[in-house]
């Protein structure tokens, strides 16, 4: 609480892929209880509508992801997923899923086209209910949507966020499609997909928020070589693949004020900049006119960002 609003916090993720993590000490009930406890604290401080509580899942929580329109959660996870989805619906919180077409393609190269996994505009895959999928990510998102609907929450407004997605630039023997070129293609298309307002075949009007995984390679991460090579950059800051990460205009008009919002959103969020000076009651919160406000905000944030890079 001491860091609000100086730090931009919009969601709290309780664990990561907890329900599909190996281990004998997993307690699904504890996960749900932790989410409820955190939400209760936010509610007591009047922050429950500004900061949501959720938990990211892997695609392994599904019994099957194809066909998307018939997907359900795994039978063993039904009680827990019912409790979690019910909590998300009541708290107006998003369902987060880590969706990786790469792994689906790697494990089924004979039945899945590479271009389909790379988010290319293919001829499409037809779902039995008539939905046409031009890329696997949309199919995975809709598989999650169908599983949520199958629990009886189809009439509730539950947003789906892709909390992780990416493509590795290197892998073990046999992972021949884990290359810098494919990583560039996938991540470029993923960013374009995230910046669009497109929905999915099942929910065409619901835009999807997407987080790219990952910014840096993780050379000490356990698992196969591909697990350590999802980064767009190496640990030393050098590029792994040439992906355009330049800031896009955050407003539909593409004007300078929209660009300023984009700079502010990044710096005050994942950038980790101390933004107290540009928040309410700060010295630079509200100069006399919008242009000077924009200049002031950009100068303050840019200076702070440069200082962080030098640490």
UniProtKB/TrEMBL annotation:
Fetch the InterPro entries from UniProt: GH, Glyco_hydro_17, Glyco_hydro_17_plant
User: Which named protein is this?
Assistant: Glucan endo-1,3-beta-D-glucosidase
What family does the entry list?
Belongs to the glycosyl hydrolase 17 family.
What GO terms describe the biological role, i.e. biological process, of this protein? carbohydrate metabolic process
> What organism does the record attribute this protein to?
Escallonia rubra
A Pfam family it matches: Glyco_hydro_17
Q: Which UniProt keywords apply?
A: Glycosidase, Hydrolase
**Listed GO MF terms:** hydrolase activity, hydrolyzing O-glycosyl compounds
